Amino acid sequence: VELMDANTLDRIWTESFEDIREDAFEVRNLIAQRVIRELGATITAAETSVMEVRPTEDDQAYNLYLAGEEYRRRPLTLEQDLLSAQNAYERALELDPDFALAHARIAEVLRFRYVFHDLGEETKGQIRHHAEEALRLAPDLPEAHVAMAIAHYVETDYVKALEEFEIALQGLPSEQRIWEEIGYAYRRKGDYDQALNAFQHVAELNPRDAPNFHDLGGSTYWLLNRYADAVREFNRALQLAPDYDVAAVDKGWLYLLWCGQPDTLRAALDLIPPDKDLGHHLGPVGLERARLLLWEQKGDSLLNLMASVRDPVLASQMELLPASLFSAWAHRLLQDSASARGAFEASLVLLDSMLVQDPVDWRLHAARGLTVAGLGRTQDALEEAHWLEESDIYQRDRFNGFSLREYRARILAQAGEAEAALDELEELVPGPSFYVSAWSVRLSPLFDPIRDHPRFRALLEQYAGDVSH
């Protein structure tokens, strides 16, 4: 074991440990106590009790738990890694049904699978079951309170989630992951100052965590239309990880939203292979290229891109748009109404079949609203806009909910419902918002049907040249 000064890289202390005991907990505690003593550190009674907890008496169950931890901690939250982690924890529970920590970890893994890999709504019940079991078996276990916080979080009860995270902090006060979760919960609740405070705390705990600067920091500033602050945090992420494509693309979008300048985004996209998946946040790179080409109103290029994409649907965490829908918009830009209608109809067939399988995915309703609006089915479009407005995410989530508001504004504009669309836009343009700004509504052809409305012209005039953020 070596202790090194992180600033100077000087070795402070080193020692080898050799022990024939099979009791991993005793060996772990022996080393931990020695490290604490050499550091001259002090730990709280709560931290001491956490360290001394023996999570299971079954060594084989504990080994399976450690295998699950290896998969859970991998950075990309890939579906296969999460499944491997869940399987290991479940096998540990078969050996020791009272293994509270394994229950808590299953709740966490299920949450990632639910968010990043589109597991069905029944997953929320499974998360709650494992959280409740963890708490029943170990009421003082910090990880059990984290699991219960996650159960509240996915049920959009952010107040109760924060209460449970605060309890967990009493046992794990310097746990980066808990502080991150607290920041996310405050952000979903709409308490952005507290979210940014949590971001700063995480940055102090781990100043080399690029995703923290990109997501909890940069994305929060982006939502608040504090574009200069968001660019600063994205740059910090890119300094730490120059190949962090997601941060580079998001930075490009900021310059387009902020200044109407597409060069940074185009340069970032040109450096990425055309078939690369940018993960749950942005999805396939083709989705980002398609949106840019749509805003630039390059119909021919958009059609060529859609002819080359592999999947019939371009999906990310916050979007799910058929390639045929982009093709329909491209044909409309080229004033080929017959081809546009055929593509809109193909999009509707695909979306209706997907909604049978997953009727509560708001992204499908958003895409369907745009599709039926393109077909001139105004009443159907208004029903989808109403569905979005009534959804729990729109009503209670003060982070992701703004994406639903943006889609609702586009659907209403496409349906020719100018007053209702402008009711949304007049709140979204000054922020909080993501892809709605004075520049984006000026560029996007999806707002063409209301472009001549006096309120629309007044909105653009009010924020023309506004670089105050």
Describe this structure in words.
With 469 residues, the protein is mainly α. The protein is 68% helix and 3% strand. It has 25 helices and four strands. The protein has a two-stranded antiparallel sheet with strand order 1-2. A two-stranded antiparallel sheet has the order 3-4. A hairpin with a 2-residue loop joins β3 and β4. α17 packs antiparallel against α18 and α22 runs antiparallel to α23. The longest helix has 21 residues. The relative contact order is 0.05. The mean pLDDT is 93.
Give me some keywords for this one.
469 residues; mainly alpha; two-stranded antiparallel sheet; two-stranded antiparallel ribbon; 25 helices; elongated
Instruction: Give helix and strand order, one letter per element, not per position.
Output: EEHHHHHHHHHHHHHHHHEEHHHHHHHHH
Q: So what's the overall shape?
A: elongated
Total beta strand runs: 4
Structural class, by secondary structure, is mainly alpha
- Please bin the fraction of helical residues: 55-70%
Contiguous low-pLDDT stretches (5 residues minimum) are none
Distance between the termini: 48 Å
Spatial order of strands in the largest sheet: 1-2
Strand content: under 5%
The whole-angstrom Rg is 25 Å
Q: What is the mean pLDDT?
A: 93
Number of helices: 25
User: Sheet with the most strands?
Assistant: 2 strands, antiparallel
